[in-house]
Each structure stands twice: as structure tokens, then as C-alpha cells.
């Protein structure tokens, strides 16, 4: 049966979509597969995708040699802590930008976003020195503060976009009904903007979980999250690809599962406000 | 008590003066309607009275107390918005209870007030539903219920019926009028619909470009408009205007006559014309008659009018019903015209 031109183009687009998705996902798949190989298989000149002797040895070794659960706990505290602290600051900031606008609101928003374009290394020395002087090096508190600050512009921007979608009249009605600013935000704005707030929280948990630059520089052992745990398999002892892959898989799987379950919410949240 | 007094109230956004100095006394218990075309400042003034917009200069007094700087919640006013502005995540019951909870009213008292509002507004069956599960009319009733329970000194309505369909609008118009009669509380009602204004108001304030052109009872505005703008805005279909070049000693530059004050004849009359579009409404008929070198007249005739498109007709108007306007658009007094 001949294909119509519509079906043909649909087939081509589907093939392209799967190819690009496969290309993007391949490194993760390769990492996970390598984590089940022996070290010799992992560096073999003719690597095999599936036809090798599967082993859990790397996972046993990694769990025995490192304090995985310690790093895991640190990652949870840092990513959740910075996201919640960030929300506490970003919600009132976004409220005032969305509902009490001044002539400079747009410029302020653009300036906040522009700080995300600054290379982090540009502020490395002042932040390192400040952390040293305040005793924040290798502490979870220090990392929570840094993560909050670097992700705050995105949080404010996202929440600002959601809040702008909420009719001002609803908040004005609350004001007429005798609500204070706190009650207006807590009883009216937050419940209505809950999907947007959840998306913001999720995205920032993911961003903070994956952040490596600051976690590697500002931590040593006590506060090191999973990113530092992965990196520890690539230095002084030489490169052990299979163990490194096992460590990477153990670090990315929790966030991969979170991303998988919340993808609907994330896509909805990220495209919120794009169309009415 | 619910008297509101506006004294030289103005509002500017940057260099644009949207409300020019306005003085207005709103009496306790009256139903006053602010009417005017879009962008004339009527909603802005209502929001200034509510406290949702700052007042650039002048004073707003509520029950004799200066409330210009008082926050919205402390003014003792309740507002019903065009978009209903219900809290979508709360049930009808919680929507109505919201202002009472903010005022720290006891739970028993809240229940009593909700039951009372539900009875007045026929909302008893919907108390546990969310606003999204209600029709437009029901939502507007909830918004009114939320306003009633606060027992405000005045209700502010900002085009509350604009989102409703035509038949529902007529019903709600009656319900709001009845509510006013039963509560006897001051109501300020903003609309661009002159039919709403005429049918509901004790007094109407006609707005144009940030000023009040005239304040009066519906019939005062209908019979004695102060200028061409008010004459054209009040009355449906709108008044016919006939511009002409007058003699040097005649101040009149325009005549105005309402469609219902023109009679139509096949034999004789002041103006000879040709019938254009005819709108049959059953009980009455509106004819558009083209008078060469003059104007197109809208004429109101009986429901049994048998004229057809293209018929030659004559129009007559009783001289006492014709309004005269000068070059500025102001209505000339009858004495001045006769002289």
C-alpha cells in the first residue's frame, strides 16, 4: 500500500524525533550499561552494548568504598533546602513584581536574569573568600545559600510568569474582603498558583541536584553531594570507568525517577503563560 | 449609613488626567449609576472610591469621614467585579465566608450569615460547589453574596452584568434592583449600558472624558439633557441630530429629536425622505429614513407599521419636543430658542 505524503512526512518526523532523543539519551544509557561491566570490558577496544558478562561488582565496590548514603543525604538537603529557601524569597518578590509593578520592574527582571549569564568562575574568588571567613566551606548551610542565590533569578522569573496569569481582580477582591498582604498571598495567590509553584520547586530541585561547579569547589567531605561523589572516582586513583559509571548511575537515577514522574507537571509549568 | 462625598477628586496616570476634578454627593441609600462610553473614567472613579486606586488630589469622604488614604478593607465598602473575582479553589460557602473570617467573626455567626445570604440569593443548593461548577449568573450571585454578608455601608458594582447573556442580564438587573429595595443600602453601579442605567438608577451620573457631564434622575436626563453628549447617550435608539448653518442672530447650530417623538406620514410633513432599513421588534418598529441633504433619521413606529424599503414618506416632530444645541453642544433653554 502506497504511503500518502502526509503519512510519509509523519514517518520522517517520527524517525527524526526518535533519532535525536536516542542521541541525547545515549550517553546516559552507555553510562548505565558500563556500570554493569567489568573494568576490563569497560575499556575494551571493541566495546559491546549488551553482549558482555553482566556484574553488580561495581555497585558493591562503590557502596563499600564510599559513603554513598551520606552524599545522597547531602544532595537531598542541599537541593530541597535551597529550593524551599528560594521559594520563600521568590514568592514575595514575584508577587510584588507581578501585582505592584513600577516603571523599573521589567528592567529589574531582566537584570536578575542577566546574572544567570555571568560565568560562575567570575565570582569564584570573592565567594570562596567569604565562605572561608564565615566558616561556611564544606557545610550544607553554605551550599544551600549558594544554590539559592544562583537559582533565585530563574525562580523569580518563573513565578512572575505564573502570577501574571492570575487576574488581579481576584487579589483586589481579597483586599476588599479585608485580607492583609500575607493573607492575600497565603490564602488566595498560593493555592491558585500551586501548579506553577510545584513546577518551580521541581525544576530547582533538579538544577540544584545537578549543580557541580560550586559543589566541587566549596565542599570536601562533610557536605559533598552526589556530584562530588562522582568526581571522586576520576581523580588520584586513576580512571576506573566501570566504577565511575556505577557511581554516576547511582547519582542520576534518583533525579531521573523524579523527572520521569513529574515530567507532565514540568512541561505544563514550563509552557505556562506561553499561550492563553 | 452610606453617604459618599467626592470633593475635587482627580486621578492622573503620568501626564494623563483620567479624572478631572469631580465633585459628587452620593446620598445614603441611593442607587446611583455611573454611565459613559469606554475609557471615560467611570470604573477608575469607582476603584478610587473602593481604595484600589490612589487618589491624585481631592478628598473622598465616607459617612462624613475623610477616607482618601484609608485602605480598601477599612472603608466599609463591598465590591462586585465584572469577572466575579471569586476564589476558584474555594467552595461557594468558603467564598462567602472569606470576608467574615478575615473580620474574625465567630463560626456560628458565619454559618448564620451564609445561610441568610444563600436564602436571599437562591444559592442553597450550590454552597459546596466550586465556582468552576457554576453558571455565569450563579457566580455573580456568589459574588453578591460575598458582598452582602459584610453588611457594607455601600456596594460598588463594576459592570457586573457585562459577562452575562442578554436574558440573564435582564433577570440579574431585576434581582439587583430588588436587593437594593430590600437592603436599602447605598449602591454605586458602573455600566456602559444606558438601558441598565435608566432602569435601575435613582440617579445617573453621565461621564465623558474624565468629567461628569450631568447628574440627575433618569427622566431628568431623558427630558432635559444639558448638552448634545447626554442627549445622545441617554435614550435608545439614540436621538437624531440635524446640523445646520444658522442665521447670525440664531444660536442654534443643531437640532435634536428622539425617534419616539417623530411621527411618520405618507402625505405631508416637515422632512421628506425615503425609507431605508426597517427593524421589526414585534411591539414596535424602527425605521431608518434618509432625508436628502439633511440626515438619516431613526423613527419609532408601532408594531403594525406596513411601510416598506424605498417608500416615500414625510416626517413630523412636535416643536416642544425638539432640542436646540449651540455651537458648543450645550442645550439652549426653550425661552432662548423662542426669543
What do you see in this structure?
By secondary structure, chain A is mainly alpha-helical. Chain A folds into 2 domains: 5-58, no CATH class; 66-232, Orthogonal Bundle (MetI-like fold), CATH 1.10.3720.10. Helix content of chain A is 72%, strand content 0%. Chain A has 14 helices and no strands. In chain A, α3 crosses α13 (241-261) and α10 (194-210) packs across α14 (263-271). The longest helix of chain A has 32 residues, at 68-99. The model of chain A has no long low-confidence stretch (mean pLDDT 86). By secondary structure, chain B is of the alpha+beta class. Chain B folds into 2 domains: 4-231, Rossmann fold, CATH 3.40.50; 237-338, Nucleic acid-binding proteins (OB fold (Dihydrolipoamide Acetyltransferase, E2P), Beta Barrel), CATH 2.40.50.140. Chain B is built from 9 helices and 18 strands. Chain B has helices at residues 42-50, 92-102, 107-121, 136-148, 166-183, 194-200, 218-223, 228-233, 334-338; strands at residues 4-13, 16-26, 31-35, 57-62, 65-66, 77-80, 154-158, 186-191, 203-208, 211-216, 240-243, 254-257, 262-265, 271-280, 284-291, 295-302, 312-317, 323-325. In chain B, the strands form 4 sheets. Chain B has a 6-stranded mixed beta sheet with strand order 6-7-8-3-9-10, sandwiched between helices. Chain B has a 5-stranded antiparallel beta sheet with strand order 13-17-14-15-16, with no helix packed on it. In chain B, strands 2-1-4-5 form a 4-stranded antiparallel beta sheet, covered by helices on one side. In chain B, α2 (92-102) packs across α3 (107-121) and α2 runs parallel beside α4. Chain B is globular. Chain B starts with a strand and ends with a helix. The mean pLDDT of chain B is 91. The chains are: A mainly alpha (276), B alpha+beta (339). Chain A binds chain B through residues 167, 169-170, 172-179, 183, 187-188, 191-192, and chain B through 50, 52, 71-73, 77-79, 81-83, 85-89, 98-99, 102-103, 146, 150.
Amino acid at each position: 500500500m502506497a504511503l500518502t505524503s502526509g503519512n510519509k512526512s509523519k514517518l520522517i518526523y517520527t524517525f527524526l524525533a526518535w533519532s535525536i532523543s536516542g542521541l541525547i539519551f545515549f550517553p546516559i544509557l552507555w553510562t548505565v550499561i558500563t556500570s554493569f561491566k567489568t573494568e576490563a570490558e569497560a575499556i575494551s577496544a571493541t566495546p559491546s552494548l549488551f553482549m558482555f558478562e553482566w556484574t553488580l561488582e561495581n555497585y558493591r565496590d562503590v557502596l563499600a568504598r564510599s559513603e554513598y548514603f551520606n552524599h545522597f543525604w547531602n544532595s537531598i538537603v542541599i537541593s530541597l533546602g535551597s529550593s524551599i529557601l528560594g521559594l520563600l524569597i521568590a514568592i514575595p518578590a514575584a508577587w510584588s513584581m507581578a501585582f505592584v509593578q513600577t516603571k523599573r520592574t521589567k528592567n529589574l527582571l531582566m537584570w536578575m536574569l542577566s546574572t544567570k549569564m555571568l560565568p560562575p568562575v567570575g565570582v569564584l574568588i570573592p565567594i570562596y573568600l567569604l565562605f572561608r571567613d564565615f566558616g561556611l566551606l564544606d557545610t550544607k548551610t553554605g551550599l544551600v545559600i549558594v544554590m539559592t542565590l544562583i537559582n533565585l533569578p530563574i525562580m523569580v522569573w518563573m513565578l512572575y510568569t505564573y502570577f501574571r496569569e492570575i487576574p488581579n481582580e481576584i487579589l483586589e477582591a481579597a483586599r476588599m474582603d479585608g485580607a492583609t498582604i500575607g493573607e492575600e498571598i497565603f490564602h488566595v495567590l498560593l493555592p491558585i498558583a500551586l501548579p506553577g509553584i510545584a513546577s518551580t520547586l521541581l525544576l530547582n530541585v533538579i538544577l540544584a541536584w545537578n549543580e557541580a561547579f560550586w559543589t566541587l569547589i566549596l565542599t570536601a567531605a562533610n557536605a559533598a553531594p552526589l556530584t562530588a561523589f562522582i568526581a571522586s572516582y576520576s581523580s588520584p586513583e586513576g580512571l576506573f570507568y566501570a566504577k565511575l559509571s556505577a557511581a554516576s548511575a547511582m547519582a542520576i537515577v534518583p533525579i531521573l525517577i523524579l523527572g520521569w514522574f513529574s515530567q507532565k507537571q514540568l512541561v505544563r509549568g514550563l509552557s505556562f503563560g506561553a499561550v492563553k | 449609613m452610606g453617604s459618599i462625598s467626592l470633593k475635587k477628586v482627580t486621578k492622573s496616570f503620568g501626564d494623563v488626567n483620567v479624572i478631572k476634578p469631580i465633585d459628587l454627593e452620593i446620598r445614603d441609600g441611593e442607587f446611583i449609576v455611573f454611565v459613559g462610553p469606554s475609557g471615560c473614567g467611570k470604573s477608575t472613579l469607582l476603584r478610587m472610591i473602593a481604595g484600589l486606586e490612589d487618589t491624585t488630589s481631592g478628598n473622598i469622604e465616607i459617612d462624613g469621614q475623610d477616607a482618601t488614604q484609608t485602605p480598601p478593607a477599612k472603608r466599609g465598602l463591598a465590591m462586585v467585579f465584572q469577572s466575579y473575582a471569586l476564589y476558584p479553589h474555594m467552595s461557594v460557602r468558603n467564598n462567602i465566608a472569606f470576608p467574615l473570617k478575615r473580620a474574625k467573626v465567630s463560626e456560628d455567626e458565619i454559618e448564620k450569615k451564609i445561610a441568610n445570604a444563600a436564602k436571599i440569593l437562591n444559592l442553597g443548593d450550590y454552597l459546596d460547589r466550586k465556582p468552576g461548577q457554576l453558571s455565569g449568573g450563579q457566580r455573580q450571585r456568589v459574588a453578591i453574596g460575598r458582598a452582602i454578608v459584610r453588611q457594607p455601608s455601600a456596594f460598588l458594582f463594576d459592570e457586573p452584568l457585562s459577562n452575562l447573556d442578554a436574558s440573564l442580564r435582564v433577570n440579574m438587573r431585576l434581582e439587583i434592583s430588588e436587593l437594593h429595595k430590600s437592603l436599602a443600602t447605598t449602591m454605586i453601579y458602573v455600566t456602559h449600558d444606558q438601558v441598565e442605567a435608566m432602569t435601575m438608577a435613582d440617579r445617573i451620573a453621565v461621564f465623558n472624558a474624565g468629567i461628569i457631564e450631568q447628574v440627575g434622575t433618569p427622566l431628568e436626563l431623558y427630558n432635559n439633557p444639558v448638552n448634545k453628549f447626554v442627549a445622545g447617550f441617554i435614550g435608545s435608539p439614540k436621538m437624531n441630530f440635524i446640523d445646520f448653518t444658522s442665521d447670525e442672530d440664531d444660536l442654534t447650530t443643531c437640532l435634536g429629536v428622539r425617534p419616539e417623538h417623530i411621527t411618520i406620514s405618507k402625505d405631508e410633513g416637515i422632512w421628506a425622505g425615503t425609507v431605508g432599513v426597517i427593524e421589526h421588534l414585534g411591539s414596535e418598529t424602527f425605521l431608518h429614513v434618509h432625508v436628502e441633504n439633511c440626515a438619516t433619521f431613526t423613527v419609532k413606529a408601532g408594531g403594525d407599521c406596513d411601510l416598506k424599503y424605498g417608500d416615500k414618506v414625510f416626517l413630523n416632530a412636535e416643536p416642544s419636543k425638539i432640542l436646540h444645541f449651540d455651537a458648543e453642544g450645550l442645550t439652549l433653554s426653550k425661552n432662548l430658542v423662542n426669543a
